[in-house]
């Protein structure tokens, strides 16, 4: 866990995040000099031979803000701000690997809502690196969305990511700009629960603040894979192969594991999904969660799968179907579970929470 490598302090800044570099790390002086610029998407920092000191005064981690329900405009602005940070780095000859895409280490201004990113200008810093494409997928899975809007834009972004194994930040921003201009009918379904969250930082300012930087060079983050192409404007069926959050290359810590869970509407029961294959049904010894008190539920009704850090649900050819936000699932196919989605096993309603 990258955040475990950093320490909080009040020197040299009022709120300082300090990284001690391992002896094997080699500082990139050109990249390090870019940390002294105030008006950039990178956190201002000072450094010496063994440490980098980041000024995070007046900022909080992005992870603390992901429970905030976001509109289409806010979500697109967030994705674009992430890509823009990499474009800025390219202009300054900073390797994309130096900019940490980690929600614990991306910071939001408490005053303006703008995002700033931690840049570690060193080779072999002992940190886990996450590419742009993987990080956007992770955000999509963990964010909450405005239920009053048409959420087809999320499917379109997923489709774009699937079609672009080598995700170019400039092209991605151009795509997001076009997508933001699209109008759609307002969804009537109550897709995500709107629970008021105190002290949440507005992200509206991201769209106004972010400059769009153009760069012809394409960054290759992931090895090419063979996958059928879909039309650019087609909203995909979100399947098992569509969205995944790749696990880190190696674990460097022993952190307590957290699991997603469901809340049953009928009685408020909490069901922790603590297996990579979690079965819902009525057969003791085979189902991980038993719904024996509902005759409409099939003997082996549905299965929740975990793959590469993301969770998917599959209707197991049940008699009375499985539903996501009121829409029946095609049996035998996997659909991604987003935070706050409603799941119905026949007529039994649950709400899914990512963690």
From TrEMBL:
Residues that span the membrane, as ranges: none
Record-linked InterPro entries: DUF6382, FHA_dom, SMAD_FHA_dom_sf
Gene3D superfamilies the record matches: 2.60.200.20
Pfam family, one: FHA
Superkingdom classification of source: Bacteria
Domain FHA, residue spans: 278-329
Name of the protein described by the UniProt record: FHA domain-containing protein
């Amino acid at each position: 866990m990258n955040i475990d490598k950093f320490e909080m302090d009040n020197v040299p800044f009022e709120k300082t995040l300090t990284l001690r570099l391992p002896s094997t790390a080699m500082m990139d002086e050109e990249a390090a000099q870019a940390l002294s610029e105030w008006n950039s998407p990178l956190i201002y920092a000072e450094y010496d031979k063994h440490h980098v000191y980041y000024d995070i005064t007046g900022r909080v981690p992005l992870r603390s803000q992901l429970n905030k329900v976001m509109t289409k405009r806010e979500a697109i602005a967030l994705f674009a701000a992430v890509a823009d940070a990499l474009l800025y780095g390219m202009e300054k000859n900073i390797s994309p690997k130096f900019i940490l895409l980690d929600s614990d280490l991306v910071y939001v201004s408490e005053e303006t809502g703008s995002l700033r990113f931690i840049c570690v200008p060193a080779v072999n810093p002992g940190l886990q690196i996450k590419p742009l494409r993987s990080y956007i997928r992770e955000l999509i899975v963990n964010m909450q969305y405005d239920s009053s809007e048409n959420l087809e834009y999320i499917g379109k972004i997923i489709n774009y990511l699937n079609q672009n194994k080598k995700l170019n930040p400039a092209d991605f921003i151009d795509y997001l700009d076009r997508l933001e201009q699209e109008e759609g009918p307002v969804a009537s379904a109550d897709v995500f629960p709107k629970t008021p969250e105190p002290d949440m930082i507005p992200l509206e300012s991201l769209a106004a603040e972010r400059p769009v930087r153009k760069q012809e060079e394409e960054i290759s983050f992931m090895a090419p894979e063979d996958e059928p192409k879909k039309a650019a404007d087609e909203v995909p069926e979100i399947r098992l192969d569509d969205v995944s959050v790749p696990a880190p290359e190696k674990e460097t810590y022993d952190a307590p594991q957290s699991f997603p869970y469901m809340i049953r509407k009928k009685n408020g029961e909490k069901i922790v999904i603590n297996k990579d294959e979690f079965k819902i049904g009525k057969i003791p010894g085979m189902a991980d969660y038993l719904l024996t008190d509902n005759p409409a539920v099939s003997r082996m009704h549905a299965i929740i799968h975990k793959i590469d850090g993301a969770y998917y649900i599959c209707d197991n050819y049940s008699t009375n179907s499985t539903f996501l936000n009121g829409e029946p699932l095609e049996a035998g196919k996997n659909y991604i579970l987003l935070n706050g989605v409603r799941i119905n096993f026949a007529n039994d309603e649950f709400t899914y929470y990512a963690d």
